[in-house]
Amino acid sequence: MPYEAVIGLEVHAELQTRSKMFCACPVVDSTQAEPNSAVCPVCAGMPGTLPVVNRTAVELALRVALALECEIAPLSLFARKNYFYPDLPKGYQISQYEYPLAQRGVLRIETSRGEKVVHIRRVHLEEDTGKLLHVNQPDGEAFSLVDLNRAGVPLLEIVSEPDMHSLEEVRAYATGLRAILRRVGANSGDMEKGVIRFEANVSLRPQGSDQLGTRVEIKNLNSFRAMERAIAYEIERQSRVLERGQTVEQETLGWDDAAQLTFSQRSKEEAHDYRYFPEPDLPPLIVEPEWIEKVRAAMPELPQAMKNRFMKQYGLNAGEAALLSEDEAVARYFESCVSEAGPAVPARTIALWICGEIFGWLNQSGESIEAVRVTPAALVELLRMAGDQTINLNTAKMVLSEMLASGRGAAEIIGERGLTQVRDTALIAEVVARVLAENPREVESYYQGKTTVFNWLLGQVMRQTGGRASPSAARAELERQLSASKTD
Which of 225, 306, 379, 409 is the most buried (most CB within 10 A)? Predict the structure, then answer.
């Protein structure tokens, strides 16, 4: 029997505040800072301490809620979510449950089947837990260390409805949400530092049914790849269980990335298992309409809106516009180049070079766009020289590579290395004649119908001119001489 996957995501995103959610301890990089160096009695859960809500965290959460078109509650409440872990020193987590900050939002995603709307159930604030480090000694002894630097860091939890049915939709939703979190300044999006974590709810139902199957929850997925692999594995596992006539058990699962499989962590778990009750030390969180409007007025252009504008304003296709609008710094770089170029270089030409050569360099070097040594003015200068045929396309790519590595200008590199394009027809004709004379077997193959030899001969012409010959002029002259020799 064919089955349909039903998938919902819970996304936990650390908010980019300077201090923690309920105390004045600084937020530090938990991968770099000395363990337990940013801890106070409040986030360590000492008796008699009182939490105070971080206003900046609330404001960042409001930005996300507005970007997701949520209904924002004028009054929300914090609750104690009771469960014990070694990295949760109070024995409970301050979160929101019955009365969250925002509900009923949407995120529009692009898929191969067109636009799809994923509904947002809730957006609420809470605090993060600490971090455990498990140590295995050579003698077989094992123990765990706890670092409370992360305990109390502001977290935003965004819960989707189970609206997704494929890995493509899940990835589009996750990447789209990450882009929004980055754009509004709520989260850095740095997956390697664990500032965004996914939890996936997965179930199967017979194709065509509108009933939900028994779901499992896969916890703490720290990358897009882990998320996709875990969901794919779970879909396959549940399919096998159902095909055998057995029942899928509701449980919480972990993901073993090394073994590429899920494993059971605990059995059936519902909200009431956590024994939520109101946080007695925090008053209701009141969000006035004036505050919401102030936040709304300061909102940046969101990635989807920017993508649509790039397509309409600059004539880009959907893929190019999406690549250039996902990161605000990249978008600023692109539009600075367009402004610098004016009518001299088409916007789409600039987009193609950024999406191709510049992005290739960023992937190879690990740099950010802000650190790129080629300014918008320098890139435009190079593209103008390629456009007016001062240099050919291959030379332009070579020059850009050197510019990216050294920060030097195009004119300096071209002048120093004598890379100006050769358009002297007499010189090109001489080189073509020499190439044909030196390669009689290849010429004969061409005449016998092996037309691919033409490109090889053209390559020899370009090689003998150091790549500086005008490709169009070299091609035309090669065609002319081959045709003349055949006639002779």
Answer: 379
3-state DSSP call for residue 207?
Answer: coil
Structure token digits, residue 30: 């938990």
Instruction: Tell me the per-residue pLDDT of 469-479, one tens digit each, with 9 for 90 and over.
Output: 777 777 887 88
Q: Is the Cβ–Cβ distance between 452 and 482 less than 8 Å?
A: no
Q: What pTM value is reported for the model?
A: 0.84
Residue pair 111/141 in contact (Cβ under 8 Å)? The answer is no
Q: Give bridge partners of residue 200 from the DSSP assignment.
A: 9, 218
Q: Which residues pair with 127 in a beta bridge?
A: 154
Residues 6+ apart with CB under 8 A from 417: none
Number of domain units in the chain: 3
Asked whether residue 447 falls in the same domain as residue 325, the answer is: no
Residue whose structure tokens are 């301890």: 25
Range of the domain at 363: 303-417
Assess contact for 86 and 132: CB atoms under 8 A: yes
Separation CA 336–CA 204 (nearest Å) = 48
| Angle, alpha carbons 17-102-108 (nearest 5°) | 95
- Pick the more confident residue, 265 or 69: 69
Q: What is the mean pLDDT of residues 221-235?
A: 95
Compute the half-sphere exposure of residue 121: CA atoms within 13 Å on the CB side of its CA: 12
Identify whether the C-beta of residue 170 lies closer than 8 Å to the C-beta of residue 9. Answer: yes
Instruction: Looking at the structure, tell me whether residues 351 and 469 fall in a common domain.
Output: no
